[in-house]
Fold this sequence. Notes:
It is a single chain. This protein is α/β, with parallel strands linked by helices. 30% of the residues lie in helices and 17% in strands. α2 (27-37) packs parallel to α10 (289-304) and α4 (101-117) packs across α6 (152-162).
Amino acid sequence: xxxxxxxxxxxxxxxxxxxxxxxxxxxxxxxxxxxxxxxxxxxxxxxxxxxxxxxxxxxxxxxxxxxxxxxxxxxxxxxxxxxxxxxxxxxxxxxxxxxxxxxxxxxxxxxxxxxxxxxxxxxxxxxxxxxxxxxxxxxxxxxxxxxxxxxxxxxxxxxxxxxxxxxxxxxxxxxxxxxxxxxxxxxxxxxxxxxxxxxxxxxxxxxxxxxxxxxxxxxxxxxxxxxxxxxxxxxxxxxxxxxxxxxxxxxxxxxxxxxxxxxxxxxxxxxxxxxxxxxxxxxxxxxxxxxxxxxxxxxxxxxxxxxxxxxxxxxxxxx
Length: 319
């Protein structure tokens, strides 16, 4: 990971840093953070302290974005909103929480894949009409899932799908000769046109960055040939107008969207009228307090031993 070595907190600064936690955090979580660090936590207020400080929370107010910030641990996996809110303090380490989110999101994706292949939505509709009619099922083995994002979440999705006999093709910034565990192969984002045409499912686990905003637009959806699109990454990576057009012309068979560009969606939002689409409430990978404390504890151990945490964010890339 391309994180500048200077972003590892200086041991002296870390030793002197006061610990601050967001007021919204559960008291039991705060106590566990105190246990890990061996120091008392103070609630983040309207203004930061004069000396070095370490913060744990979901957001960082403008007043706290100063050179006195040593380290911020985000309780969320996505840091796009955190970074978009203002300039990141030079030299401050940013780490994030993933926990078992990959496992949860992978099960979410598999659930919708199997539900579609077993005609669960159609059978549910028939039940509501008291209608008895056989519907065909589809076997998943041998089909291809194209998974955008090959990090911890994408790899978890790939591993679970692959366990069902689905061929998994990852899409990353560049192709990899040796694919990560869970993937049959990994291609570069610039060479995905052919893979989109042969995929049965297109799964996005992309973060939101300058490079991925509107990533799934008219050109990519035009290359799809009847795949189902599942988005468990970030809503703004999708051009919703292009997705709607692709659903209406049939190039995209169905869509399952756990994330949207604007959340929550108002009752009158046109996303609710997309054909053959299911929208869920950004709930595929809800973070548990246990995830936060486990990942923060791992990052704490890494930093204390002079290592860049695996969960460190390259603020230039945005993930």
